[in-house]
Amino acid sequence: MTTVLFTCAGMRVDVVTAFKDAGATTIAVDADPLAPTLHHADEDVLVPRVDDPAYIPALAEIVGSRGVALVIPLTDIDSVLLAQRRDELGAPLLLPDTEIVVKTADKYAAHELFEQHGIPTPPSWLPGDVPEDARYPLLVKSRYGYGSRNIYRANDRRELDFFLDYTPAESFVQTCCLGEEFSIDVFCDFEGRCLNAIPRTMILSKGGESIQGMTIKDGELIEAGRRVAEALPLKGPATIQVFLEDGEHRVTDVNPRFGGAFPLPLAAGGRYPELALALAGGEQPEPTLGEFRQGVVMTRFYSSVELEPQAVS
Asked: 111-170: per-residue pLDDT in tens?
């Protein structure tokens, strides 16, 4: 059985459980003993915080002592660090090349990256470069934000100046897209080939997390996902955020990890855990673009883990 190490496991029970169902031996690590995913993996290990110099050596020790064949980060918290020090881990890392991970972590740098590759993206500026004829509304967005934190909508110049002064985060300014928003969950091999791209609607989201959505077989969205994934290129899983506006799919964000709505492409037949395990085993799966079930609806809910006293002592 292929052993997979999941870092910053947190609340990603859905991902770890799916890999167990696909036949993997799962090891979940976190600095928090109450992280729910620790209690759903085959093995759990407490590790130092990401900002501790001992973090990477701790992961490398687990990889070496337990025969880990693949390392998968489950949040954005440690992705840049892992990408920069991947050679120290001792096992393949399911992340794009370091430059792509670093630039997609910085939302303004990501905008510049999209433009460099000819990927449609909303006009964006650093705070001091916003032109007088910019089309409002504009969004003040954190460059390093996640979960829709520190995003403010400005309807005119007065509001823009206020929010730029108000926000506590290093920010940039982006034209607010007025079209319909979609997410595309893609999975690529280690050569950057897009193996599948599964679009979904955004029925309901809270705090940046998709709560309700539905898979759709839209050929243009599938092709947009493939084109973005292979242009950068991406490696492993990613969620691509796009708006359909004026007949163009404009990319606002690329998150190179399993998205919060991971259960939806899984239920639609994406088989992304099986693809990841195949890559870990040295296989080269062929692309199956468009092979998934459309009309699958997801509605997420809260759950919990109840622990005995000794489990948290």
From this structure: 999 999 999 999 999 999 999 999 999 999 999 977 678 999 999 999 999 999 999 999
Q: Which of 255, 257, 279 is nearest to 6 (CA)?
A: 257
- The structural domains of the chain, ordered by start, are 3-93 (3.40.50.20), 123-175 (3.30.1490.20), 178-299 (3.30.470.20)
d(CA 230, CA 227): 5
Question: What is the CA 164 to chain-centroid distance, rounded?
Answer: 27
Q: What is the pLDDT of residues 184-218, one digit of tens each?
A: 999 999 999 999 999 999 998 887 788 999 999 99
- Tell me the CA distances in angstroms from 210 to 170, 171, 277, 288, one per residue in order: 25, 23, 26, 25
Strand partners, 299: 212
Helix axes 98-105, 107-116, angle to 10 degrees: 120
β-bridge mates for residue 26, sequence order: 4
DSSP alpha helix (H) spans, the chain:
13-21, 55-66, 79-84, 98-105, 107-116, 157-166, 219-231, 263-267, 272-280
User: The pTM is what?
Assistant: 0.95
Sequence-distant (≥ 6) Cβ neighbours of residue 157 within 8 angstroms: none
Sheet strands (E) in 165-302:
171-175, 180-188, 194-201, 204-206, 209-214, 236-245, 248-255, 297-299
Among 57, 55, 42, residue whose Cα is nearest residue 1: 42
Q: Return the SS3 of 32.
A: coil
